[in-house]
Amino acid sequence: MEKLSGGRDGIYRTRSHVIRPANQTSQTIHSLLSHLHRQGFHQCPKPIALDHEHETVSFAEGQVYNYPLQGNVASKQALTSAANLLRQMHDASASFVEGLRGDENWLLPIRKPAEVICHGDFAPYNLVLNGEEAVSVIDFDTAHPAPRVWDLAYAIYCWAPFKTHEFDKMGTLDDQIARAGMFCKAYGATQGMLSNLPDVMIERLQALVSFMREEAEKGNAAFQQNLEDGHHLAYEKDIQYISQNKQMFLTELTK
Ligand SMILES: Nc1ncnc2c1ncn2[C@@H]1O[C@H](COP(=O)(O)OP(=O)(O)O)[C@@H](O)[C@H]1O
Ligand SMILES: [Mg+2]
């Protein structure tokens, strides 16, 4: 068994499978992944097995990148193919939302109107690339019912990227806005989504910081460590950056 890097400890690969720690959401997530495949969306792991400790899903062949975005993952092709995958995943998940019974478990709070299942962390490090082409979405732990724009806003924050940390940032503000526009176009965002995007992005990041604080207060060690490492400060700086440049961002997106 090979240990996989790029995420938490405790993630392993056998020849064609990935073994990850299970949690209270795993059963719901496995149902979601099965549903996506039944709907013809095959660019996500297939659920293979689940017990109290571990989940097993299929391994997606390709390369996974992280920040700073360099090489294939920084290409326009990676950006637009990622946006295409997000659109297809959302579309395939809409019928899952219609079938929800209310006894599902999600890590993040349901957000109304629950149009689709949002991935919740549609960042470069949760996509698998083949060359410059995004070919699979992985790590559905943070998936939850929410409006499309909730996921779109966070994905664009990660892919533009509107990040200020010296390790994560890429390009000028103009480049970032141009990349945001390309992502929206490839997704097929409506005018309504575009006109709300900067505000939703800010709200999404504020919700993330609140969630980190709440979980840390409840005793969640991973989030306590995140706060100690100052992750919330980076998000707060990015909120400020987006707020300061909101008008220019909005003008470019909606013209
Ligand atoms: N189904 C998969 N197919 C291919 N690689 C995977 C898969 N699941 C995880 N990985 C690899 O393992 C790493 C960590 O997995 P991930 O599920 O993203 O963990 P975490 O939940 O800690 O972020 C990923 O960056 C990726 O390289
Ligand atoms: Mg991950």
Automatic annotation (TrEMBL):
InterPro entries: Aminoglycoside_PTrfase, Kinase-like_dom_sf
Pfam families: APH (PF01636)
Superkingdom, taxonomy of origin: Bacteria
Domain Aminoglycoside phosphotransferase: 107-166
Protein name per the record: Aminoglycoside phosphotransferase family protein
Organism: Grimontia kaedaensis
